[in-house]
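Recap quiz, item 2
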Amino acid sequence: MRKIFLIFLWVGITVSTQSLAKVSGLPVFKNYTNEAEIYLLNGKPMVRYHTQLAIYYPSDTSVELMPYYLLSLNSDMELKSLNVYTQLPNRRKVQLEPKDMSKSYGGGDNYFVGDDIEIKLPFRKLQPGCTAYIDYIIDCDDLRYFRPMYFGYFLPAEEIEHTLIYPEDVKVKIFSKNMQAANVQKVQYQKRGKNFIKYSTSDTPEIEFFEDAPSLAHYQPHIIPILSSYEIDGVTHKYLDSVEDLYKYYYSIVFRNGDKTSPELLTIAEDLKSQSPDRQTLLKNTYKWIQNNIRYIAFEAGEGGLIPRAPAEVCQRKFGDCKDMSNLMVKLLKLNDVDASLTWIGTRSIPYTYEELYTMNTDNHMIVAVKNDDNSWLFLDATDPAGIFGLPTPAIQGKQALIAIDSQKYTIATVPVIEKNKNFSEYKLDLRLDSSILKIDAVLNSKGILRGRINSLLRYTNKKESDNFMKNLIDANQNQTELLRSDVVDTEQEVHVTNKYKVGGKVRSVAGYYYVYPYIASILPFGTVTVENRTVPRDIELNRVLRNETSLHMPKGYRVANMPEGFEFRGQSFTYKLDYQKKSDLLILSEELVIDSPELSFSVEDAIKWNQLLTKLKNIYSTPVKLVKK
Amino acid sequence: MKNIKITLLVLLTLNMSSTLGQQRVNISWKARPESIDIDMSKWEDLSVLFVYNRVKSKYQKVNGKLKHTRYVHQRLRLLNEEALNSFNKLEIPYTDEYEVTNLHARSIHQDGTVTEILADDIHESNKGEVKVKLIAFENLAIGDDVEYYYEWNFPNTGFTAIDFNPGLAVHQFYFELETSKDIYLDLKPYNGIEVYEDTTTTDGTQILYAEINDIQEPNQEEQFAFPQRYAPRVEYYTALSETVKQPLSWDQFHPYKSSLYTPMYLEDRQLKKIISAIPSAASPEKRIFEIENYIKNTYKEGSAEEEIPGDRSIREVIQSQYLFPNELPSLIAAVLQAEGIDFKIGFTTNRMLKDLDTQFVNEFNQELLFYYFPEYDKYMMPLDRATRYSYLPFQLSENWAILYDTDTNKSYTTHYIPAKDSRKNAHNHVVTVSILSELDSVQISTEEALNDDSKSAALSALASFEPSQVQESLKYIVNPDETQNVLEVGVENADWSGFYTEKPLILKSKVNSTDMLQSVAPGEVLLNIGSVIGRQAELPRTSNERQHDIDMTAPHSLIREITLEVPAGYKVVNLDDLRMNKSLSLEGKEQCFFRSDYVLNGNTVTINIDERYLTSHLPKESYEGFREVINAAAEFNKLELLITKI
């Protein structure tokens, strides 16, 4: 069963796949052959995947890089057969025995208990010149999630072939993505009462992997079959012929665990009501109550992967996953007469809309939607401890949401991309020289999701870690940075961080001159973007406006020897400004960085410009300001 | 109950406030949680506190076999959101052999109420080859406790060590050992822990116990520290009494008597084949190197994914051209013996983790294998494919070792592996820095001489590379940040024989750098002359008391001579900044120092730096003086000279 289990990490979403890109001597798919055959068994549609891989190992490097293959199975898949062997350079076959295949359940770090299976297949006696063969058959009785068929992998492939087979009494549509750029041949034919659609391509290079890029599905060519309907004894059964079919299926199972009200739920709902003078406050308080009281633990085994637990159970246990939290939030709001809706959504790693792909491939997450007075939708995602009421989390901005109205009705709305000014940060630094030490008073004000990040970081750290975080707000050698005082005031609207530091290493006192490096806080949210061989955008996660203002006090009797010059630099999706001003005994440096992209990404052209800006700033940041006696 | 204190060995005392272990603790799951009163003001700023960590190991004879059951009872207080998110789940690994039973768990709330975990909510799963039991604690809030208990059936391993070092702050750490009358027990505590015996038992059962209270959270940021070395621990040996005929002796653990290092006996024909392939050597000592070098280079390491047959014959080894780790030392030993070369088989512990106690027999402490050649007083690491005779890794130095003769009839001897000589364990630089006439870049010629530990680290990498890879690797070594333009790079004595020779590994480079120079005004530049010594470790001033003594890998020295050529018409304004002198002496004896000075001769400045660490160990009270020496090097690294027009 396809899981809905998304967890948010407040440090942002990262991809941990190890990059194989540009590694010479990679293993090679001699063949990547996959057949998906839809058939009817006891009146129920099934799919059998038959996959055959031949992986050639040309070098020692290739052997070191991929000594085993990981076979992943969703919990609703049944492995019918598996045959793995290595063909040695002398043509001898060395079989992998079942005892040497180790199984793992779960699904990595995202959920605690799961029943997805990962089987590790270590190829025996692997050495340069070997070919490893894997041949497996999987049966699956739920076609609402169909395994995507890709035409390119992290290994180069000599032949890729995907074949869809289905009987004449079954109707199938093919959803395709990014196929226009792919050199894929399609052959369609009928044989013994079955339809065959064969897609093939050859000599595909390995996919260049960029950790900061959107997911592969955004740019790699692939197809996903959709089972529209099937016929039994002349009667047509709809399966997934429209969004409505998907919705009706979701709705039919979503309350399967019940919706009973417990005394505890009533008490909490009453408390929330009594603390909330108006509807908006009630919404905010309910959202925050879930955020603060329900911890993320995901039990995704069996139906737990798809069906929310009963609200009373989640409330009693004080933990759950996105579905559980959403279901509880809807219940609490409904107890207070607020019409809230369970809402299915795919995070930004999934590039599909419901209208184009009305299968479970399109979502992986659940949130809550509530109608605003102006008829727009308010989206509430309590899974993210850094989430800000009223601002959708970065992972779902710009994504379609499937909102439940009742058993028959639903609506699709798009989660807005948050406007740049709502994610605002201003950092003011006051610098005074004390011999070769800089004394710094720093005030950081952050709003929006940037505020949430700081709030969350401090919430999840002890004093030592929060002191380290504060020290890291200064771009200086940590061993030479002393945090003298730190105060944090967090209001609903913004977080104010006031810090005092003593910092060494930023002033050189030589022969009666001072050389000061006043660029104490970096305004740049990320570094250089890898642009070599890049065709895919760079994800920027959120739009924002950042301002730094640094005031350097002149020591008595000193002046700036040469006033540096400011500049402005523009990309398509960002603007950077640097300005210097003299004001009585102050040198004031002002920096502003605005990042604004409707797609929340930098194009490759923008990434190149971004790198140019960084090169320019590197020179500026490493040039000291010289102070001389008046 | 009368308690007597048994063996007490104080090697070094850890920073712990009390050892109150006078009373036994009943380790069992109770219907109601224990009432525990802790002064939490002692534990400010913590994320999580082990309220207690209680472990009991019980050994008894069952059906003629020794059965070991471990009882684990733990309770943690979750003091912030981070702790709540980290410790609200519990995973207990087990296997068919290491079965977990009687698992109980609950959340204990601050108002005294509890939320029990029901049997149905204990989940089971697989993680690779390991099974796990999974629990999510319910209804938790900050300040609540999680408590759990389980029993673990262990196959008996003979030797066991209990480390009182859980990596978290602990209010009470209690360990108990129970053996029935038919069990042999030999036990020794280390690093200040006291073990008591319950003498009230009447049926021959022996019960020993130890407790430590108020263990501070380890300071992970402490540098130059080997905290594990000083952690209190108990080591013990258990067996059925009937199987122990005599007191334990290291002789019983001669490697040739165990399955690990079964000696290989070569037939004449095989022996001749191997020996004839080994290059001849100019001296008997060089022959030792050649034997090891030939075997390590010729026989590849058996893949971990390969099946390991029981005892492969030497014929199979020669045919396969690979050796499993346990076969490598055996083959080397067989050839050494065949050539009549006298050597001993030695074992010791990794000094960074614990010192070897030769007085207490523990097979598990036969951790690091080496061969010792008494005639030359030198060592070989037969298991380590990245080193060769006569390099001795620092982990083995300054520690006792057990030496076995190749003749299993001879008794073991003890042997002390001395400290390294700081003068010989040297990494030295001769550098010439020339400022180019445009004042926009410098040319740096460097000759590095690496000896002993630093030579070994470089050799291990370089000697295994193909020649084509060496140049690229050298470029990376001299220019890791890719900020310089590498003009020339070269290396001498970088093949495997570099381990044998006393000659240093020489790394030569010539680079152009613009990063070292910073133009600050017309005709005025800052030259970061200190950067030629490379980035240096830097120690912070600690606001808290240092927890551990200062430990370095080995005594060593770094001697640098830097020649700076200043262009005609320019001068260095702040030459005296080059004069630095920091040293640490204890009881009138210098322990470490950093000294730099210069001589100006025309437009040439010659800078000499002598940085030396004469000992690998210093008491924690000398941290401030040590920090000054370490930081002097870091200060020098940042040093900038102002060069202006005359």
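Confidence is low (pLDDT under 50) at residues 5-23 of chain A.
DSSP finds nine helices and 36 strands in chain A.
End of item.
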